[in-house]
């Protein structure tokens, strides 16, 4: 079964996600932004979701993590929870 490890930042609006993505592209620290802005409890850990298996996350999030490039900022990815910026650290 495929596994991955990812960081994410969850916000309410696409506009907020776009602004944060710009900051990340300019070199901002992902963990610091997650702690400041993420609505997910994982924000306290810098957005770290730890390791999880394919199918454990909602489909749009799962697709981004398991199909998108590793170590790049993906998103905004819309789910029922809001808009995510995702950084897949590894997958196997």
How would you describe what is shown here?
The structure is a single chain. This protein is an alpha+beta fold and 92 residues long. Helices cover 32% and strands 35% of the residues. The chain has three helices and four strands; from the N terminus they run βααβαββ. The protein has helices at residues 14-25, 30-37, 59-67; strands at residues 3-11, 48-53, 73-79, 82-91. A four-stranded antiparallel beta sheet has the order 2-1-4-3, with helices on both faces. A hairpin with a 2-residue loop joins β3 (73-79) and β4.
Question: What layout of secondary structure does this protein have?
Answer:
Blueprint lengths: L2 E9 L2 H12 L4 H8 L10 E6 L5 H9 L5 E7 L2 E10 L1
Antiparallel strand pairs: 1-2, 1-4, 3-4
Subcellular location: Cytoplasm
GO molecular function: isomerase activity
Function: PPIases accelerate the folding of proteins. It prefers amino acid residues with hydrophobic side chains like leucine and phenylalanine in the P1 position of the peptides substrates.
Task: Fill in the keyword field for this structure.
92 residues, four-stranded antiparallel β-sheet, alpha+beta, 3 helices
Average pLDDT figure:
97
Distance between the termini: 9 Å
**How do the strands of the widest beta sheet line up side by side?**
2-1-4-3
Which band does the percent of strand residues land in? Answer: 25-35%
Oligomer: single chain
Decide which structural class fits the backbone: alpha+beta
Largest sheet: 4 strands, antiparallel
What shape does the CA trace take? Answer: globular
Q: What percentage of residues falls in helices of 4 or more residues?
A: 25-40%
Number of strands: 4
| Residue runs with pLDDT of under 50 for 5 or more positions | none
Rg, Cα atoms, Å? 12 Å
| Count of helical stretches | 3
What sequence of helices (H) and strands (E) makes up the elements? Answer: EHHEHEE
